[in-house]
């Protein structure tokens, strides 16, 4: 027996121990990239769940590497270590990007370091 459980615009993911998740910020958790719809804090030995909005939509954010240009049409990557969006793929020694491609800039960075970007399609990539 099967049934539809959601429209797939959001997913419930696990927040690891010793982690602070802020509502409205972007995260990569359980292989999904999206915007947290609530805040969650975990301590030592604790995990929790948070809902990430993963809808293919246009988003506005200041959660960026401010030294990057972010011109309209630039690819947007997520730097999980710094927890910011960047225009750098950051390839490893083999040329494979270390930062995850998540979308494209639709409105260039403004004087307040805010961009608009279109979140692209994603398939869960199970963490190694």
Notes on the protein architecture:
The chain has no helices and eleven strands. It has two domains: 6-55, no CATH class; 56-121, no CATH class. By secondary structure, the chain is mainly beta. The strands form three sheets. A five-stranded antiparallel beta sheet has the order 7-11-10-8-9, with no helix packed on it. Strands 1-6-4-3 form a four-stranded antiparallel beta sheet, with no helix packed on it. It is globular. Helix content is 0%, strand content 39%.
Topology, please?
Elements: E1 10-15, E2 20-21, E3 26-29, E4 32-36, E5 40-41, E6 48-53, E7 58-61, E8 75-79, E9 84-86, E10 100-107, E11 115-119
Antiparallel strand pairs: 1-6, 2-5, 3-4, 4-6, 7-11, 8-9, 8-10, 10-11
């Amino acid at each position: 027996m099967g049934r539809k459980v959601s429209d797939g615009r959001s997913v419930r993911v696990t927040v690891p121990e010793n982690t602070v998740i802020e509502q409205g910020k972007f995260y990569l958790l359980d292989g999904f990239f999206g915007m947290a719809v609530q805040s969650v804090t975990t301590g030592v030995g604790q995990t929790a769940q948070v809902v990430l909005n993963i809808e293919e939509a246009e988003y506005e954010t200041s959660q960026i590497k401010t030294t990057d240009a972010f011109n309209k049409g630039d690819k947007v990557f997520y730097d999980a270590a710094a927890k910011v969006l960047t225009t750098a793929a950051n390839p490893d020694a083999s040329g494979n990007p270390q930062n995850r491609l998540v979308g494209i800039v639709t409105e260039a960075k403004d004087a307040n370091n805010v961009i608009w970007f279109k979140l692209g399609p994603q398939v869960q990539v199970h963490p190694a």
